[in-house]
Specification:
heterodimer; A: 6 strands; B: about 220 residues; alpha/beta; Alpha-Beta Plaits; five-stranded antiparallel β-sheet; 7 helices
Chain lengths: ~140, ~220
């Protein structure tokens, strides 16, 4: 199975490493060459340097025959645009995108994108943790 | 008309000025604090500070009215795409115009239906092509939605089509001659219309057929 991870920050690189470790053929795309460092010296997957909206580069990174694309750059709007292209232009079967802003996350979730919103999860956890201390 | 403008750079600012001068109601959104201060001195309450890709900022700017037109004119193409999508699909703004900064991003705007788009690079390239024709073929109009374009060619004395009748030309599928200008008079050609040296020909065609058309009309 082939996966493409776009944006190799803390989240993207860890996702790439875990998928690679469980047998996926993973290629990582990041603007910054230093991001390769997060993957460690033993990284054997692919690595492509450049902007995630560069269509030529996306093709070079194998988006056309990817089974899954994970979009985790540091820009919500960049992520939403790339994810929609992965889904509609390249027809990747599984597209998962990180969006930090809960409002945009909620809207685009209603339009068929699979969204992970860490901010919304954090809010829920925090509120839950505090409310758990309420006397019954 | 009520116009919402996202992005107070050179494009957004001058657009706001022009629209206000012609009696329109405008709200402009600018994120950068320093730029906002400058704009506020000139436009007062007509400029709002914030990130125009945040829903609450768009709502404070009055997107729920909704505006008659939204112009996404920031310096970031991905922001312009998202602003355009939100305006149209979430808030029902009927008319959206988006600025393209990097022409390579055009496919994203097309894919996600954010149109029409305006690109300074594209506009200047169009002018350059008009001034310096690309191998005898001038792009006059692109009908992107319809996937058609209108081009102009001049039949010179060495052109393959000189002296031939339109009906005898082996035009590529998806290309048609729509006008022939002979000695300053334009006519809608039929199969019997003969092409002469110096005639200007307008053709409508599917993008990508330019080379074939050029071969049939200009080269033998």
């Amino acid at each position: 199975m082939k996966a493409l991870v776009i944006g190799s920050g803390r989240v993207g690189s860890a996702v790439a490493l875990q998928l690679g470790g469980s047998g996926w053929d993973v290629t990582v795309l990041d603007e910054n060459e230093d991001a390769l460092g997060r993957l460690g010296d033993s990284w054997t997957g692919g690595f492509v340097v450049g902007h995630g909206m560069d269509l030529k580069l996306l093709r070079e990174a194998g988006i056309e025959d990817a089974d899954a694309v994970v979009v985790t750059t540091d820009g919500d709007n960049t992520n939403l645009v790339i994810a929609q292209a992965a889904q509609k232009m390249f027809e990747v079967p599984t597209v998962i995108v990180r969006v930090l802003d809960p409002a945009r996350a909620q809207f685009y979730a209603t339009r068929g994108l699979r969204i992970v919103c860490p901010t919304a999860s954090a809010i829920e956890t925090l509120v839950g943790a505090v409310r758990a201390t309420e006397p019954r | 008309m009520y116009v919402l403008i996202a992005g107070g750079g050179k494009v957004g600012t001058n657009l706001t000025r022009s629209l206000l001068a012609t009696g329109h109601e405008v709200t402009m959104i600018e994120q950068r604090p320093y730029r906002f201060q400058m704009l506020e001195a000139e436009f007062e309450h007509q400029v709002l500070r914030g990130d125009a890709t945040e829903l609450f900022v768009l709502e404070r700017a009055g997107i729920k009215r909704p505006p008659d037109l939204l112009v996404a004119a920031t310096g970031d193409d991905e922001d312009n795409i998202i602003i355009g999508q939100l305006a149209r699909d979430r808030y029902g703004v009927e008319r959206v115009i988006a600025r393209i900064n990097d022409p390579r991003n055009q496919p994203y705007f097309d894919l996600l239906g954010v149109s029409p788009t305006v690109s300074a690079t594209g506009a200047i390239m169009g002018l350059i092509e008009h001034e310096v024709p690309d191998h005898g073929l001038i792009h006059l109009l692109e009908l992107r939605k319809e996937n058609l374009e209108i081009v102009e060619l001049t039949i010179d004395d060495h052109a393959a089509a000189k002296g031939k009748r339109v009906g005898a030309l082996k035009l590529p599928d998806g290309a048609r001659i729509i006008s022939v200008v002979h000695n300053g008079t334009a006519e809608i050609p039929d199969d019997q219309t003969q092409l002469h040296g110096g005639d200007q020909v307008l053709a409508i065609l599917e993008p990508g057929k330019e080379d074939e058309l050029r071969r049939v009309l200009l080269r033998g």
